[in-house]
Amino acid sequence: MLDTEVLSRSPSRALDVVTPVGAVRFAVRVDGWDVPARPEFTWGLDSGGRLCRWRHRSVRLDVLSGETGSGLPGVTRETAIFRVLAREPLSEFVVQVELADPPADAAGSESAFTVETADAAVSVGGPGAEALRRCSRAGHHVPPYWSGLADESVELDGARLTWQLPGVERGDYAELWVAVAWSAAGGDPGRAVDLDPARVLRELTH
User: Fold this and answer.
1) pLDDT in tens, 2-25
2) Residue 76: which residues within 8 A CB-CB, separation 6 or more?
3) What is the pLDDT of residue 3?
4) Which CATH architecture group holds 4-205?
């Protein structure tokens, strides 16, 4: 993903994103391995973002994260791009993202949700199943054998999203991107979580 030999090490911390409505937390499981919240290695990037890395006998997980331009006035966006590299055949790749202690009402669609308080609105989202199938057919971000990905692979439950993704063959990789955006109450941060992962990747690694 990046040449870590030319990057500077940074203190490791969890991927949590702090928003005006509360913390957005991530959980990852790969091939039965529950990935620890704190990465093994972290490097700072010139963009202000960071590269986090976890290693296991069967997989390497890299996560690029940081603030990226939303293109919308008054909307702040943090993006995380998860990349698993299979050292051995992997049976599953699961990413869950959840807003801790959300307000009672969360409005959502297949792969995004928005919550709002009197002071702020927060949206969280990522690719739906159809978007991942298109990427698979085009040979971008995910393996070509994911082209038959089931709709049920992406699940929304209130203010929690889960991507229950298929296995990854040895030597292959798969990427998943999640955006967290917020604005003052009455804003529309939901538009900012529908993004082009290639453009965001370039922005974080420039």
Assistant:
1) 656 556 778 888 999 999 999 999
2) 67, 70, 181, 182, 183
3) 56
4) Distorted Sandwich (2.70)
